[in-house]
Structure formats: structure tokens, C-alpha cells
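This protein record is not my work; I was only asked to verify it. Would you go through it and say whether the fold makes sense for this chain? Here is the record exactly as it was handed to me.
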Amino acid sequence: MIKVVLDTSVIVKSILLPRKSLPKDIYDREIKTHNKCKQLIKFLNNEGINVYLPKVALVEVASVLKRHGYPKIALQVIESLSNSYNFVSENEIFEHSIDIALKTGASGFDCYFIATSSMLNAILITDDEKMNKHANSIGLKSILIIEKEFKEIERILKND
């Protein structure tokens, strides 16, 4: 059965609308990404696809929501994620995350997501170009959501 690791960028962009103060071309791109992320999460839930996250994702989601001015919904989102997805504990992936850091030079949080994907042989889905590049550099299957139309993502997930 297919397994997916969702990066925090996808989770947060599925929740938050982009700021209207962004330049129009960037705002339009980010609205499209927001809608694609929402559609992806709905698809994953409807298809019963196993979604995995490193436990540290909860910390990152809380931090991002707080920084964007949404501290009150952070706990609700964390509870929803905890009830909806599978989590890999720090103990399970710590050593592998260090190996990923040494191989790729990716940021600390990114190493946890990449390590989770690697250990589970899962597809990593992100909106972070650097994370996608690091994952690809070690042979992982990674989808950069901004680069793909939703139909293509759906096809990849159904055929993998």
C-alpha cells in the first residue's frame, strides 16, 4: 500500500490563505497552491492513503501558525493531525535524520521529514524546493506540489 509523508509546508498552505498584500502574480500562484494542498489532503483522506509525519511536525505546525498570527487554531490543528495521521517518534528516526543531514546538508526539520520518507519508502510531498532537491539527491521519490497539476499528483499516487 502506498505511503505518503506530508511536509509542514503542504499542511500549513492547506489551512492558511496567502496574504492579499502579496504582489498579484505571487498571490495568484499561492492561491493555486493553497487550493491544490486542500485538494490533496481531501484526496488522501478519501482514498485512505496512509500518511506519516515525524512527531516534530507538530512543533513546526504550531510554530508556523503562531508566526502567522493564528495561535488559537494551532492546538485544534495539532489535535486533528494527531487523530488523522501516523506519527514516527524521535527515537525511531533520530539516527537516520543525522545521516540525512550529513548526506544532504538539509535543515534540521527537513532532515526529519526526509528521514521519515526514506525509512518508510514513502513519497514525500512538499512545497519546499530545497527539501525536494535534497530528497531527490538521495534517490527518494518526492513531489514538489508547486510544479505539478493536481491531476498529475493524483495519477502518481494512484499508480505508485
